[in-house]
Description:
Blueprint: E1 8-11, H1 16-27, E2 34-38, H2 45-60, E3 66-69, H3 81-88, H4 100-115, H5 118-125, E4 130-133, E5 153-156, H6 158-161, H7 166-175, H8 194-203, H9 205-217, H10 232-238
Parallel strand pairs: 1-2, 1-4, 2-3, 4-5
Helix pairs in contact: 1-7, 8-9
Amino acid sequence: MHGSVVVIIASYGAGVNSTAMLIEYALRGLKVDLILFADTGAERPHTIRYVETFSAWLVANGLPAIITVKKVDFKGKVLTLEQDCLNKKTLPSLAYGFKTCSQKYKIQPQDKFVNNWNLAKKHWKAGNKITKLIGYDADEEHRTNTSYENQKYDFIYPLVEWNMGRDECIATIEKAGLCQPGKSACFFCPSSKKTEIKQLKAVYPDLADRALAMEENAELTSVKGLGRGFAWKDLLSNQDLFTDGYFSTPEMTCGCYDG
């Protein structure tokens, strides 16, 4: 698959797809040099726990531990998307139809780490590219972009190459003896479905309160709230939390979502 490429990194999103991809790499005896997970500061507790558990599984099966990276300022102070929104009295960019959240708090911290990673610097200096694994599954082949040219990276989509769709990814995780990772997204993500917002309130009421505080703090003109066309406050105060389909897990459209 990789030809002469010797440096391979994976961006781990802590969802079903990227989990299954790395399990397959371990089971097939394939090499990965670096695995990064970007923490926006808004991960749900179960996601953080899963990253720790899965990292231990990877090490036990011959792959490197997951390294967690965060966005920091020039002094090394950790910056979070939540605090940025509170400071600016706004909502995540996705609420307004943009996807800069993923760029700033997921992609940039990982790129910064790799840019300062000695193995990567040596590899680039020699005129080589690094191979980056992307966990889109075979049901998402439309999201791949094999024609995109990047001076530093070659992007590959192993799950698409292996014809592994969502069902196959779930089965791979089960066969490895691991539980499913669950949803991986910021707890205040504007792409959350109404059932997911209600579930957040029931399972993590403190996080729901923080999301509502962000919404209340924001100076809104073009949108009604975190739900864009509706305010989370109205949803959670006016509707029964326990409706049919309460525990369903519909797909989300956030660019940084992995599940």
